[in-house]
Amino acid sequence: MILTVTPNPALDVSYRVARLAPGTTHRVRSVRERAGGKGFNVSRVLHEMGIATLAVGPVGGVLGESLRADLVVSEVPHALLVVDAPTRMTVAVVDDDDATLFNEAGAALLDSEWDKLLDLVRARLPEASALVCSGSLPLGTPEDTCARVVAAARDAGVPVVVDTSGPALLAAASAGADVLKPNAAELREVVDSADPLAGAERLRALGAGAVVLSLGPEGLVAVTGEGRWRAVPPFPVRGNPTGAGDAAVAALANGLVEQSSWPMRLRAAVAWSAAAVAAPVAGSVDVPLLRKLHDEVRVETL
Amino acid sequence: MILTVTPNPALDVSYRVARLAPGTTHRVRSVRERAGGKGFNVSRVLHEMGIATLAVGPVGGVLGESLRADLVVSEVPHALLVVDAPTRMTVAVVDDDDATLFNEAGAALLDSEWDKLLDLVRARLPEASALVCSGSLPLGTPEDTCARVVAAARDAGVPVVVDTSGPALLAAASAGADVLKPNAAELREVVDSADPLAGAERLRALGAGAVVLSLGPEGLVAVTGEGRWRAVPPFPVRGNPTGAGDAAVAALANGLVEQSSWPMRLRAAVAWSAAAVAAPVAGSVDVPLLRKLHDEVRVETL
C-alpha cells in the first residue's frame, strides 16, 4: 500500500461560469465539490490505477466533513485525524478559456495535533511500501513537519517521495527523502541557482536521494545517484494541468515500490502526468491515453 | 417587530486577493464568512439601527449550520427552517479595484418545505408590524412562492415590502404587495417599457400599492397612489454598493411601520442606502454618516 500524507487538505470547489469578467456579478452555472490537496490527489490516481493506497490527513469543521464524505463516495481508502482548525477551501472558476484559482492558506494545527498525525502515520507505516508527503503546509506550521514525516518513514525502512516547496522542501532534502519533485520555480526559490541541474544537485548534497524536476509540457528531468535523464511526452496534450504533478508523483512512488529503472520511472511519470492533463479533474487520469502515451515517451540521458 | 423572509439564503464568503488576474492562481489573503441573502441583510440593518426584527428562512447542510452560527454571533434574531436542500454559497473576490461576485443558484426546496416555511411565517405574523420578502428564489421554485408570503401578510393585516425580480416580482405585484423595490434593470425586465415611471405604473395596475425604484448613486424614485417623488443623496458616497438596496428596503419597511410621509420615507431610504455603501460589508450602515446625510437628502416632487 502507498501511504499518502496531505498536511493541508482542502475542499476543492469548482464553479463553471460563462466568462470571468473582473468587477462583475456571475451566475454560477454548475458547482462541483471534491476532496482536494495534493496527497489526496495522488491517492485518487493510485486508486484509479488499481494500486492500493491510504490517504492520511487532518480535517476539521464542516468542510472537513464534506471532504470526508467525498473520499467515502470516491472509495479512496483514508484515515483522517479530526483537528480543531477548520479545513480550508479552494475555489476554481472555470470558463471556456481558463481556470482561475483562489487558494485559502489553511489554518494552523496545534503542535499536539501534528504529533497525533505523526502517530497515525507511524501506525500505518508497517503496511506501507512507499510514503508520499505532498502539498503545502498551513500557515504557521513548524518547518520541520515534512522532515518529521520523512524521518518516520526512513525509521520504518519505507521509501519517501516529497512534493512541497519553500523551507519544507529544504527540510525534506536534509531529512533524506528518496525523491523530491519540485517544479522549476519551486527549485529556483530554494536553491538560488538559475541552472536547474546544479540546483537539483544542491538538494542531493543536502541529503535527498534523487530530484525529479517537473517542467510542465516539457516533461521531467531526473537528477539521481545513478545518472541524469530527461523524459518528454511524444505530443502536446491539451486540458487541465491541475493535478498533473500529482499523477507524476503517484507514478514515481509506484516506481519506487516496483524498483524499476529510472528511465522506466520517468517514462511512467510523464505518461501518467500527460494522461492527467487530458482528464477533466485533478486526481484523475485518461487511462486509454496513458497506455497510448506510455511507449511513446522519449527518454534521453543527459 | 419587522419580519424578514429570505427564500434563498447563502453563506457569503469574501476573499481578499492582491489583484484578480483571470487564468492565474491567487493566494487568498483573508477569508470572511457571513450569513447572507437579502432578507437577512435587511434584518442586520434593522438590528444595527435598534429596530426589532426577526429573520426567517430555510437552511440546509453544513453551510446552513455555518449561516446559523453567524446569525447567533451577530445577535440577529432568527427562526430558521431546516430543509433537505443544502444552503448555497456566494463568493466575492475583492481586490483594490473591484469586487467580483460568484453567485450559486441555490437548490430547490420540496413543496412540503415551502408549506412549512409559510406556516412559520404565519405563526410569527401576529407579532409583526411589517413583513419584508427579499431576494431571489432557488432554481425550480414555484413562481407564486413570494405571492403566497404576500397573501399571508395581507390576511394578517401586516404591510409588505418585496424586493425580488423576474416572474416573482410580477406575482408579488398581483398579490397586492404594499411596496415593491426593483432596480431599473429588474423593472425593465418584467414590464417591457423603457420609461421607468410607466413601468412602475404597470406594477401598480397589477395590484402593487407603491413602487420604489432604486437607481444606484442617482437615488430613489417612488411611484405611489399619493404622488411621485425623487430623492437624491447630497454627495456621492464611495464604497461597497452590495447591500445598499437592502438598507433602502429596511428603511422603507420602517417607514411603513411609522406611517411616515412618502418624502420622509424616501429621505430615510436614501440616507440608509448611502450609509450602507460607506460601511465595509453588506448588512451594515455607517451610522454617523447616516445622521449627517439624512437632513441633506434632496427630495423633489415629480
TrEMBL record, chains A, B:
Record-linked InterPro entries: Carboh/pur_kinase_PfkB_CS (IPR002173), PfkB_dom (IPR011611), Ribokinase-like (IPR029056), Tagatose/fructose_Pkinase (IPR017583)
Top-level lineage group: Bacteria
Carbohydrate kinase PfkB domain sequence ranges: 12-281
Classification via PROSITE patterns: PFKB_KINASES_1, PFKB_KINASES_2
Keywords: ATP-binding, Kinase, Nucleotide-binding, Transferase
Family: Belongs to the carbohydrate kinase PfkB family.
Name of the protein in question: 1-phosphofructokinase family hexose kinase
The organism's taxonomic lineage, starting at the top: Bacteria, Bacillati, Actinomycetota, Actinomycetes, Pseudonocardiales
